[in-house]
Amino acid sequence: MPNKDVRVNSRKYDQSIRRTWKCELIEHNRALIELVGVFSEGVAHTGLGQIKKGTISREYYWLDRWYNIFRFHEPNGGLRNYYCNIAMPPTFENGVLDYIDLDIDVVVWPDFRFDILDREDFEKNALKYGYTDEIREKTEASLDELIRMIDARDFPFSELSAHITQIRNS
After folding, report:
1. Share of the chain above pLDDT 90, in %
2. Residue among 38, 37, 33 at smallest CA distance from 93
3. Which of 50, 53, 54, 138 sits most deeply, having the most CB atoms within 10 A of its CB?
4. Phi, psi values for residue 42, rounded to 5°
5. What number is the average pLDDT over the span 38-61?
6. Which of the four pLDDT bands, split at 50, 70 and 90, describes residue 163?
7. 90 with 33: CB under 8 angstroms?
8. How far apart are CA 138 and CA 99, in angstroms?
């Protein structure tokens, strides 16, 4: 049985590590890597508020897309929100998933409202690191694609839609 432990490295454009955490590999096919992790400690986040210790993170990384999507569940299992990172496509090798985070994030709440965060950080780092025109274009195109996915309730947001339907029918 292959090792299912994965280390995730969120990197800045200069390759320095911004954050690192451990997850378990759930699925890996040609286009998508799906991981699950659990917050080992509480985190105070400016856009999300307090994320409790024990929060479950279901993480989706496409090998050909400029974003990744996390689905957060409270420790009791209830859906908390989705968190989307605009990021360069990841690499996955020897149990390590690496990606370059391009700062802009989208938070999607259970009622499908969403907030776009950290545009100022993107602009600041675009100057600091010299983001190319291609990176700027891919970032904006990926943000547009994410918003279309949210509005259309495409995977993985379709799971949120199914969850809401189930609650309404209870």
Report:
1. 81
2. 33
3. 138
4. -70, 150
5. 88
6. very low
7. yes
8. 15
158-161 long-range contacts (CB < 8 A, ≥24 apart) are: 159/71, 160/71, 160/79, 160/82, 160/108, 160/110, 160/112
Other Cβ atoms closer than 10 A to 25: 17
150 has a pLDDT exceeding 80:
yes
Residue type present at position 49? G
Which amino acid makes up residue 83?
A: Y
Query: Is the CA virtual torsion 110, 116, 121, 122 positive or negative?
Result: positive
Strand bridging mode 67-73 / 91-93: unpaired
- pTM passes above 0.85: yes
- Give the total residue count for the chain: 170
Q: Where are the beta strands (DSSP E) in 12-95?
A: 17-28, 32-38, 43-45, 49-51, 56-62, 67-73, 79-87, 91-93
Our measurement of the distance from residue 37's CA atom to the centroid of its chain's CA atoms, rounded to an integer in Å, reads 12
Place of tokens 């990744």: 68
Question: For the stretch 78-117, what's the b/e string if a residue is b when 16 or more beta carbons lie within 10 angstroms of its beta carbon?
Answer: ebbbbbbbbbbebebeeeebbbbbbbbbbbbeeeeebeeb
Q: Which of 169, 166, 9, 146 is nearest to 79 (CA)?
A: 166
